[in-house]
What does this fold into?
Amino acid sequence: MSVLALLRKELRAYFASPLVYVVGAVFYALTGFFFYTQLVYFVQYGFGVNILGNFWTAFMAGAPYSLSMVLLLVVPLLTMRLLAEEWKLGTIELLLTYPLRDGAIVAAKLAACALVIALLLLGTLAYPLFLARVQPVPWAPIAASYLGLLLLGVCFAAAGLLISALTESQVVAAVATLGFLLLCWAVSWNEAATSPPPLRLAAELAMFDHFEPFARGVIDAGDLAYFAAATVLFVFLTLRVLEARHWRGRR
It folds into this structure.
């Protein structure tokens, strides 16, 4: 089996299950509701000269009624089965007999989940297209915010894949991933709980602080490097978990 064949297998597993359709329905219901209510709120009360820009930033990154928060909530449901199900059913042994490196297996599973996330985000382009029918919109900042969402989604998926590798229970994987992502997302939010030096460190580590510039239409090399490094770190740790399980299995 090649990497491409394994990727197709993973995509078939996603779309043969009702879970992805339920997740998609919940995702669009929540993001559609937040889009409508926040748009009405900003149109009625203003908030500066750039009302449309402020609305879009809030819709992308404003907690808790934002597209990024909904993405954080649904990604654990997409990643929980990736490796936990393989451990539970015992199919991981069969998978590991394929002439593929562990890295190729992890890459195929992560790519399948990333494609599902990209499809979910693609559907939300209906929101800026709706705005464009009302008045001209700045497409460059919107494109930057979608780049940030895609990087964020892949980073979420890599973290979920790591946690899925640690347990045989999909429920445990989903709950643990949700808790971990919430911690990584909001670790710098409570400024009164700590002194400035630890707060600066928390801001360097927090996913929100690196996504928020994208939501404002700013693409910074440091933020790109952060999401790339975090994703690579989670993939690296996943490979180490698989390697440890191989080692225990040979004992």
